[in-house]
Amino acid sequence: MNGMGILKGLGVTLKHFFQTYVDDIKYGGRKYIGNENFETRQGLKAQGAYTVQYPEEKLAMPERFRFVPFLVVEEPDHPDRAGHDWCTSCGICAKVCPPQCIWIVRSEDPVTKRPVPEPEAFFIDIDICMNCGYCAEFCPFDAIKMDHDYEMADYDRTGVGLHIHDKPRLSKPFSYYYDIAPTTAAEEAAGRGGWEHPDVIKEKKKSGQPVMDKPWHMLRAEDPEARAAAAAAAQAAAASASASAGPKVDMAAERAKRRQEALARHRAWKQ
Ligand code: SF4
Ligand code: SF4
After folding, report:
1. Candidates 130, 165, 169: which one to mutate for ligand 2, based on the most atoms within 8 Å of Cβ?
2. What is the DSSP string of 26-84?
3. Of 79, 170, 236, 241, which is most buried, counting CB atoms within 10 Å of its CB?
C-alpha cells in the first residue's frame, strides 16, 4: 500500500524516541557509576538515542581504533633494558609510509662510527599522516603502534613536538600499548615467542635463558619485592629526569601564549 514505507519508518523513529526516555529513567544516575553502564549505553545493545556529552564524556574506543602512530619503549624500571627503544631504526616504516611523513635519524657509535640499532631522532608530521596504519603493519619489531589519543587540536601548527611529533612525544611505554590493545599485544607476543623485544627473545633462547611469560609491568605488579625495587628505580629515574629537564613548563600558559601568537599572525595577515 502506498505510504506504508513512510509509516514504518516513522514508527521506528518514534520507537527510538520513547526508548531513549525509558532508558534514561532505567539508568538514571547509574550511567556514571562504573564503566559498565556507560559502555552498555554506547554499545550495540543500547536502546534509543544516546547523546555523549563530549568532552566530559567520551566514547569507548574499540581496540582496533587507530589515530596517529607512537613508538613503543620499555618501562623506565625494566630490569634488562630500562627505557630502551623497541625501534631499531631499520627504516621500513618510513619507506612504506604512503605520504612519506616519517623521518628517522639512526644512532651511531661515537667511537667506531658504526650504526647502532636505535633511532637518535624520529619525527612524524601528524598533519600529513593519514592514519593508514601501514607503518605499524610493516614494522618487523612491533615497535610502532597506532594510538587512541585523538585530542591533539592546537592553535599553533608549527614547531617540533606540536604537530611534528618528535621522539620524546612519540615514545610511550609498553604498558600503555598493553592497556589500549591487550588482545593484539597478546597475539603479537605469541607470534614473537614472548613478551620482550624480538632481539632479546632471540638472544635469550640462544643462551637458554627463560623468556618472560608476562609483560614486565604485570610481573612487577605480582611480585612485591620486584615492585619495591621498581618503585625505587622509577623514583631515581624521575629525579634524574627532572634534574636534567630544567624549569617546568606551564602547559596552560604555553597554550594561551601560542593562541595569542596565532591570533596576532592571523590579524596581521588580514590587514
Ligand atoms: S618503527 Fe619499526 S619499521 Fe620503523 S624504523 Fe623502527 S623498527 Fe623499523
Ligand atoms: S599511519 Fe600511514 S601515513 Fe601515518 S605515519 Fe604510518 S604509514 Fe605514514
Report:
1. 130
2. HHGGGGGSHHHHHHHHHSTT--S-----TTTS-PPPPTT---SEEEEE--TT-TTTTT-
3. 170
The ligand that comes nearest to the alpha carbon of residue 120 is: 1
Domain annotation for the chain: domains and CATH numbers: 8-59 (no CATH), 69-245 (3.30.70)
Counting from 1 in the atom list of ligand 1, the atom nearest the Cα of 71 is 1
Beta bridge partners of 160: 164
